[in-house]
Amino acid sequence: MIYVIATTPMKPENRDDFIRGHKACTVETRKEKGCLSYDGHVSVNDPNLYVVVERWETRDDLNAHARAPHMRVWRDYSAQMKTAPTVIEIISDGKVEKI
Fold first, then answer.
1. Which residues face 35 on adjacent strands?
2. How far, in Å, CA of 74 to CA of 97, rounded?
3. Confidence (pLDDT) at 72
4. What pLDDT sits at residue 97?
5. Which residues form the ABM domain (predicted)?
6. Were 52 and a residue from 6, 33, 56, 69 both cysteine, which residue would form a disulfide, CB within 3.0 to 4.6 Å?
């Protein structure tokens, strides 16, 4: 099993649009092969930090997710709503990969 934690700092003025847009992305992601769970949350410590927690059956499923058409749309849509790039941590086999 693959776990992913993705954290994105949002621009305060775009927070609601960012969250609304991610909800649409979530609906499509949950339909993908190998997606066990995919949920977005606003950080309890920072109202402008969005945290996505994911579980995938395999690394191949996760890699396919990264190439999915709706993810391309999401990346384009959300790009101007961030204060910094998303930090992605991939956890598998007792190792953490940060990208």
1. 56
2. 22
3. 96
4. 84
5. 2-90
6. 6
Exposure letters 19-50 (e unless 16+ CB within 10 A, then b): eebbeebbebbeebebbeebebeeeeeeebeb
* Nearest Cα residue to 87 out of 50, 62, 55, 60: 50
Mean pLDDT on 13-34? 97
Local structure of 84: helix, strand or coil:
coil
* C-beta of residue 52 within 8 angstroms of C-beta of residue 22: yes
Sign of CA pseudo-dihedral 24, 30, 35, 38? positive
Q: Compute the distance between CA of residue 26 and CA of residue 76 in angstroms, rounded to an integer.
A: 15
